[in-house]
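Encode chain A's predicted structure.
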Amino acid sequence: TSTQQLGNGFVTVYPCGTVPDASNLNFQAGVSVPNAVIAPVSADGKVCFYASAETHLLADVAGWIEEGQSFTSLTPARVFDTRPEKGQGVVSVSKVRVGPSRTLSVKVTGKGGVPSSGVAAVALNVTSTQQLGNGFVTVYPCGTVPDASNLNFQAGVSVPNAVIAPVSADGKVCFYASADTHLLADVAGWFASIPT
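Encoded structure for chain A:
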């Protein structure tokens, strides 16, 4: 997440060394903006962050990919949509806003092309819309809500973000919002569990 910027610019996340001619996140001064990034790690285990304009940065780790671990892409499928005027996705949910007093729990395994077992995480595109205030969304494998955000929003501005979400032992992903917002999520793929 880029926040409290002193100008417009971009952030590049890379395995240190020479800064590549690429961006992972674009920002405008005064607008907090997150993005999901899969970042290669350097030989000594580091990741570097370059910004083209001065900005504060925060980063939350959601997982890691073991060398040789497989990702299976899917034709995107709508998992759910909380908006009353829209149809259900492959999972039926209550048609009310998610907020600090209502966390949404969704079983993703066995839905939208995701297998029923052997899934460590899913790749989602999560969108916040029709918000009643400014806030953030945290996507996590249920249980205790982590001190992290996957998507930041402002009231009245629809905003999406790519999220790689770990899946709980019973195949669920939970969605917490710090302010009331409608949410929708599309699944784009999944990561297999590593055999133990």
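The chain has a mean pLDDT of 91.
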